[in-house]
Amino acid sequence: MALALAEAARGLGRTAPNPPVGCVLVRGDKVVGRGFHPRAGDPHAEVFALREAGERARGATAYVTLEPCSHFGRTPPCADALVTAGVGRVVVAALDPNPQVAGRGLARLREAGIPFTVGVGEAEALRQQSGFRSLVTRGRPWVTYKYAVTLDGKVAAAGEANGAVTSAEARAWVMRWRDEADAIAVGIGTVLADDPRLTTRGVEGGRDPRPVIFDSRARTPLSARALRPGTLLVTAPEADTRALEDRGAHVLRVTGLPDALHGLGRLNLSSLLLEGGPTLASALFAAGLIDEVRALIAPKLLGAGLPPLNSPARGMGHAAALRDPHVEPLGPDVLISGLLHDIPRLSAGGDL
């Protein structure tokens, strides 16, 4: 399953609205086929693995990071493909929350007399599939808030040009996170203060996530580096956006933040990396719309400056605790990550 998860990771940021999925076929003690889902419309992971294995798939064990699909979409059902190939057993990391599947893939295997096991490597599979699961069950992308702070909790010095908070090692990780996200969001304050590119740099084979600018009054300068064909401008219904649209911006007129995220979901954006400043992050946090946090902490002291959140004080008893927190060094910096919301999942209970 570790190999299957590594295969699935190759599709991160490229498969929406589909999930990233990996499959490995093992016969005896040899891997005879492996595959991953590269993008929506292409064959699924099981198909690539079965093609590589050929006749060696008969009697093999299939390790799949998501329940094989059971319906006709852009491609035929993978559960049927496994049955036709004559696999001897199927090991699944996580069940599919899509109502069109949701246990039906396993039911197809049972009908064919193929034994299966569910839940191996589930935790990592759920993290890989968090965007897909959010889009299917909530109609909006999974929102990950990434920020970098000094030891005294400042993201930037107020009122002056700011250099990088963290090291080159940490910034390289951020580029990989961007590569794995469908979209990257900032607020108009960040655009005016920092003029970010919102691109992926230094990642071999990398691709840029779709830029999203939250700008209720359409104040984004026409010279902004994040403004390019396809950039999403999230703005108020009455904002004058004609000049920005002429520059290629796609305008999303909304009446609030929940409406904005559901608008992104309707565009099949399943994962959103939030890199905005305190104003946008605080608004999303207050609305309960941040799902995951990745905080980079640099061994520096700044003094006066801006915090990552400027929400009104609520008292320590009301602090939002991260679930399943992880701490790891990135060069001289430290990454603390964890969840604010559970990743939507489907239980393997009932008659499965």
From TrEMBL:
EC numbers: 3.5.4.26, 1.1.1.193
Binding site residues for NADP(+): A148, T190, D194, S216, G277, P278, T279, L280, A281, S282, A283
Highest taxon of the lineage: Bacteria
Keyword NADP: yes
Gene Ontology MF terms in the entry: 5-amino-6-(5-phosphoribosylamino)uracil reductase activity; diaminohydroxyphosphoribosylaminopyrimidine deaminase activity; zinc ion binding
Keywords, alphabetical: Hydrolase, Metal-binding, Multifunctional enzyme, NADP, Oxidoreductase, Riboflavin biosynthesis, Zinc
Pathway involvement of the protein, from the record: Cofactor biosynthesis; riboflavin biosynthesis; 5-amino-6-(D-ribitylamino)uracil from GTP: step 3/4; Cofactor biosynthesis; riboflavin biosynthesis; 5-amino-6-(D-ribitylamino)uracil from GTP: step 2/4
Residues reported in the UniProt entry to bind Zn(2+): H44, C69, C78
Function statement: Converts 2,5-diamino-6-(ribosylamino)-4(3h)-pyrimidinone 5'-phosphate into 5-amino-6-(ribosylamino)-2,4(1h,3h)-pyrimidinedione 5'-phosphate.
Protein name as catalogued: Riboflavin biosynthesis protein RibD
Gene: ribD
